[in-house]
Amino acid sequence: MNSPILSYLSSYGIDPAYIMIGLLVLILILFILYIRTLCRMKKFYRAYDRFMRGKDMESMEDTMLKQFDRLEALEASDEKKEKQISEIFENLQIVYQKTGLVKYDAFREMSGKLSYALALLDKNSNGFMVNSMYSREGCYSYVKEIIKGESYITLSEEEQEALKMAIESNGDIVSDK
């Protein structure tokens, strides 16, 4: 075989056999990709055939209309859920979210720390303080209003600690004094 292209390549030191092998490898890769594409097309055609089987234009139109109806129903449901979520979020702004609880022995005469001061506050640190003091004669409970983290009535040491705990954290923290 006396080809001017092969002669030209061999004059630069390029062996034509390498080029032939490279072209064969390229043809093999292209052949594999072609077979893979054919398999995918066959799979796609099967899915298309299954979708279209037994359908004429009227039944296809009914199917499309049903899907549009479902889509509209989903959009309406989504709007309803968003409205409910926003209402829940608004309600969460005023519920009691912060708590502080301090258990203590009110009169230092009985063990067990049966007295407690409980602060319940909302997001803006508004709420109330419950102080329940237990003694041998009975149990006494007091409620004090808390506005923006402060009380207009003087707070005991335990009540101040419970209020501080409620303002600083959102957890159910119990302190024993």
Structure overview:
With 177 residues, the protein is of the alpha+beta class. The chain has three domains: 53 residues; 37 residues; 79 residues, no CATH class. The chain is built from four helices and five strands, in the order αααββββαβ. The longest helix is centred in the N-terminal third of the chain and has 37 residues. This is DUF4446 family protein. Pfam families: DUF4446. InterPro entries: DUF4446. Keywords: Membrane, Transmembrane, Transmembrane helix.
List the helices and strands and how they pair.
Elements lengths: L3 H8 L4 H37 L4 H36 L5 E7 L10 E7 L5 E8 L4 E8 L10 H12 L5 E3 L1
Parallel strand pairs: 1-5
Antiparallel strand pairs: 1-2, 2-3, 3-4
The residue ranges in which pLDDT falls below 50 over 5 or more consecutive positions are: 171-175
Query: Count the helices. How many?
Result: 4
- Termini separation comes to 105 Å
Structural class: alpha+beta
Average of pLDDT: 84
Amount of beta strand: 15-25%
Indicate the percent of residues in helices. Answer: 40-55%
> What's the number of extended β-strand segments?
5
- Please tell me what the overall shape is: elongated
Largest sheet: 5 strands, mixed
Number of domains: 3
Q: Determine Rg (CA atoms, Å).
A: 40 Å
Strand order of the biggest β-sheet:
4-3-2-1-5
Secondary-structure element order, as H and E?
HHHEEEEHE
Transmembrane segments: 17-35
InterPro entries: DUF4446
Protein name: DUF4446 family protein
Keywords: Membrane, Transmembrane, Transmembrane helix
